[in-house]
Design a protein that fits this description.
disordered N terminus, cyclic-di-GMP binding, 2 helices, about 40% strand, about 200 residues, six-stranded antiparallel beta barrel, single chain, elongated, mainly beta
Length: about 200
């Protein structure tokens, strides 16, 4: 077994680890993306099952459903994947702790899944929607997550309609007053998910 990097054992003791099965994607130093699944997680670290295992000390950008974007470094190689230490501010760690507690409670109480993906508002919220029939609709991004977008628009295509949000493929999944919600066909890459994003 690979040796622990300094303070990883302390990190494990400091934060309670929660068994959690979350799907995600991660990017190593070569900037290629790979799918993964969590085994367990704490606000300080996460253990992943994955096919491509980076080097000890290598930087990782990870996106997890329900949690959002995380950054860290690989600290050990358990069978079938790797464990990473999460680099985050105390405020971000508190947020992760709350999300993990909610996920643990949701599973034990059988609660329905909520919308907990990290969301942001882009600097340039104006976007054009292109429908399957070639029609264009002007829209404004209310907020965006890696898996979907809320759009303010005067026109509401039917639920299930496939469309391009800018150049990003998606489909209409819900209505709300003054707009629509669209789900992306593929999650947005972690390195693109910031306020400067252009769809």
């Amino acid at each position: 077994m690979a040796p622990l990097l300094p303070d990883y054992a302390a990190e494990q003791r400091r934060h309670q680890r929660v068994r959690a099965t979350l799907l995600g994607r991660y990017m190593l130093a070569d900037r290629r993306e790979y799918p993964c699944q969590t085994v367990d997680m704490s606000p300080g670290g996460v253990r992943l099952t994955c096919a491509v295992i980076g080097a000890l000390g290598e930087r990782v950008v990870l996106y997890l459903e329900q949690i959002g974007r995380l950054e860290g470094v690989i600290v050990r190689h358990p069978p079938g994947g790797f464990a990473m230490r999460i680099n985050a501010t105390p405020r971000k760690r508190d947020k992760i702790a709350s999300q993990l507690m909610w996920l643990a409670n949701r599973e034990s109480l059988g609660l329905p899944e909520g919308r907990t993906n990290e969301r942001l508002v882009p600097n340039q919220p104006g976007v054009t929607l292109r429908l399957e029939n070639g029609r264009f609709i002007a829209a404004r991004i209310i907020d965006i997550s890696m898996s979907g977008v809320a759009l303010a628009t005067a026109s509401a295509p039917p639920i299930g309609t496939h469309l391009l949000v800018g150049s990003t493929p998606g489909r209409v999944v819900r209505y709300f007053e003054g707009g629509i919600g669209a789900q992306f066909m593929l999650p947005i890459s972690p390195d693109r998910f910031h306020e400067g994003i252009t769809l």
